[in-house]
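Incident log, support desk, overnight shift.

02:14 A customer reports that sequence design results differ from what the structure should imply. Their input is reproduced verbatim below. On-call engineer (initials T.W.) acknowledged and began investigating.
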C-alpha cells in the first residue's frame, strides 16, 4: 500500500487492537466501525488529491479503497453476528455459524472469477472511474460516488471482507469442534450458577487473567474458553452483565463468597478456627 495510506492503515490496525483489549462483544465492533469510518474520510480526501493520472487512480481503487472498506464491511458483519450470539442460546451457535458459512460459499460462487483475477493483479481497466461511468446497465454505477469509488473497488472490498469473514468463521468452527469433546465429556462441569459464571468471566476479563494469542481475551473469547475448560457458557451474557451491574445489594457476590471461603480455608490450614 502506498504512502500516506500505509501509515493510515497501520494506525487503524493499532486502534482496533487497542479497542479489543478494553471492549468485548458488539461494543468492540461498534467502536471499530466508528474508527474505520473516520479513517475512510481521510482516505477519500487524500485519494482525490493524489489521483493525478490513470496509474495512480488504478492503484488507489485496487489497493487502497478496498482495504479500508473491507474492514468496514467486516466489522459491520461481526457486530451483527455478536448481537445474534448474545441473544441466542449457546446451543444455537453451530447452526448460526453454518448459516454464515453458507452465505460466504454462495458469495464466492457468484464472485469467484472476479476474486481470482483480482488476486492475480488483473482487471486494471475496471478500477477506473471512466469504466464505472460507462456501465449503462449496472444500477449500482448510478448510486456510487463516481468521484470516490468504482464498481471494481466496491466488488474487491466485498471479496476481501468475505475472505476475512470466512477466516473468522473457520476459527470459530475449529474452537467449537474442539470444545464439543472436552470438559463435559471428561466429567468437568460448572457447579455454581450462571450468574456466578458470568461474574467470574467478567472478573478475569477485567484483570486480563486469560489471554488469546498474546492479548487479553474479551468476553466472547472467554465464553469459548469456559466451554472448553468447564463445559459451560452463559446465555445472553451481555444482558446478564447489565443485571449484575444493577444489583442493589452485592454486585460481586461470587467473588466475595469465594474470597471468604478461601480465607477460611487458609485460616484452618494455619490452625485458626472460629
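02:41 Re-run completed on a clean worker. Output:
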Amino acid at each position: 500500500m502506498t504512502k500516506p495510506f500505509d501509515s493510515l492503515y497501520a494506525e487503524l490496525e493499532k486502534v482496533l487492537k487497542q479497542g479489543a483489549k478494553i471492549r468485548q462483544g458488539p461494543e468492540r465492533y461498534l467502536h471499530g466501525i466508528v474508527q474505520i469510518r473516520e479513517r475512510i474520510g481521510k482516505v477519500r480526501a487524500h485519494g482525490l488529491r493524489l489521483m493525478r493520472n490513470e496509474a495512480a487512480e488504478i492503484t488507489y481503487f485496487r489497493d487502497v479503497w478496498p482495504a479500508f472498506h473491507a474492514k468496514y464491511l467486516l466489522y459491520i458483519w461481526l457486530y451483527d453476528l455478536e448481537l445474534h450470539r448474545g441473544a441466542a442460546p449457546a446451543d444455537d451457535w453451530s447452526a448460526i455459524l453454518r448459516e454464515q458459512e453458507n452465505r460466504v460459499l454462495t458469495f464466492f460462487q457468484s464472485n469467484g472469477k472476479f476474486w481470482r483475477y483480482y488476486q492475480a493483479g488483473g482487471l486494471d481497466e475496471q478500477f477506473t472511474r471512466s469504466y464505472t461511468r460507462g456501465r449503462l446497465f449496472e444500477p449500482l454505477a448510478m448510486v456510487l460516488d463516481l468521484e470516490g469509488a468504482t464498481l471494481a473497488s466496491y466488488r474487491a472490498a466485498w471479496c476481501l471482507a468475505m475472505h476475512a469473514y470466512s477466516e473468522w468463521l473457520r476459527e470459530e468452527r475449529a474452537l467449537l469442534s474442539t470444545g464439543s469433546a472436552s470438559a463435559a465429556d471428561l466429567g468437568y462441569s460448572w457447579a455454581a450458577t450462571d450468574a456466578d459464571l458470568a461474574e467470574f468471566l467478567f472478573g478475569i476479563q477485567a484483570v486480563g487473567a486469560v489471554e488469546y494469542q498474546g492479548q487479553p481475551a474479551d468476553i466472547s473469547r472467554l465464553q469459548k474458553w469456559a466451554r472448553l475448560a468447564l463445559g459451560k457458557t452463559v446465555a445472553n451474557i451481555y444482558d446478564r452483565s447489565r443485571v449484575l451491574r444493577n444489583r442493589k445489594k452485592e454486585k460481586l457476590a461470587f467473588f466475595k463468597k469465594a474470597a471468604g471461603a478461601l480465607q477460611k480455608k487458609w485460616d484452618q490450614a494455619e490452625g485458626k478456627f472460629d
